[in-house]
Amino acid sequence: xxxxLSLIIAFSVVFTILGVVSAVYGYVSARREVWDLLDxxxxxxxxxxxxxxxxxxNKASAADFSNEDGYAVEVLFTDGQPPRxxxxxxxxxxxxxxxxxxFADVSGEWRVFALVGERHTVRVAQLLxxxxxxxxxxxxxxxxxxxxxxxxxxxxxxxxVGAIVGRLRPLVEQVEQRSTDxxxxxxxxxxxxxLRPLVEAMNRAFTRQRAAxxxxxxxxADAAHELRTPVTALALQIESLRRANGDPALDELLAETTAGxxxxxxxxxxxxxxxxxxxxxxxxxxxxxxxxxxxxRVIGDIVITAERKDIDLGxxxxxxxxxxxxxxxxxxxxxxxxxxxxxxxxxxGTVDVSxxxxxxxxxxxxxxxxxxxxxxxxxxxxxxxFRLDETEKEGAGLGLAIARVIAVxxxxxxxxxxxxxxxxxxxxxxxxxxx
Length: 435
What we know:
- With 435 residues, this protein is an alpha+beta fold.
- The protein contains 8 helices and 12 strands.
- The strands form 3 sheets. The protein has a 5-stranded antiparallel β-sheet with strand order 2-1-5-4-3. It has a 5-stranded mixed β-sheet with strand order 7-9-10-12-11. A two-stranded antiparallel ribbon has the order 6-8.
- A hairpin with a 2-residue loop joins β3 (99-105) and β4 (108-116).
- α6 runs parallel beside α7 and α7 runs antiparallel to α8.
- The model is unreliable at 59-66 (pLDDT under 50).
């Protein structure tokens, strides 16, 4: 679950529980306070009534003492005088219970307070229905504002959490936009200070990763460089032995040995090239490069090899097209693609190079009439040391991996697809547009 949604749900649940508890407490407290207030009112009425002489017109008659709150008053005398009552329709109980008590008659349930004196007793009664109505109205008046505030709190939580989490967005975007080989420290910027330990831990991990990658690259470059000299010497020695040998059977063995040494030499050269490209992954200075001139240069370097195999190598389409990049790297990228096409295209075939623009994007295309690649392997061939035919004596399985490293560093994409117009393969390098 996303952090933002988790925080919103957590705070909303907490505020809802607090709001409901507060509303219930306010409701109950308001009812209790109203009841206490009405009890106090009954006691005050009982004390103010006295013997009723100031309220009732005479001892024998009833006074109109009814009101909206449903009160009824009765004064009983100890000397045998007739009682004074405010409402003749209220049936007070015959037994007097001092203090508060409840009774019921035809009018409903009553709560009565009895003040017992030496000469008279005053009883003040109030309908429970009236009391319930007053207390309930007061209780809801206290609870409703709190209940209304709960959904408002949800909206406030949503906005506040969004604003707080929004402070993480620059950091998230910074990490999302990093390339796979970017190990530069992450800047916290205006992000929450609580994230500083996490960012510092990430930066320490990036530093360790960068150190390990650099160590691996240096080892690979050093190992390839050290192997290059003995392998070259071995190839020269085998060639000298082949020339001095007069046994045809041994010549065949020496030829196979020479092919193996040549393949080892190619592998070492590719490893060196890969190490150099990865070491320069973030150090390349980009400039304007004419891709049409790069294509002509690469074709000029490989055309002799193509002619030896009876392959027609040339430019199919060329336009003045400029890309941002390092010229030496782009020459190496195109050399890999053209060399692969020449190597796998059978004699009598063709290899065409096109330089064009697809809208604002410069595009390099290399097409051949070779056997193509199974659809399932079109992406796997970019993996290091992956080879379709393990028995093949040439190639190191690193060329396309190097091509992709160069392309990624230039913000370009390199892809392969089988031709639809005829048998063969099409390699496409698409560069980003620039103003």
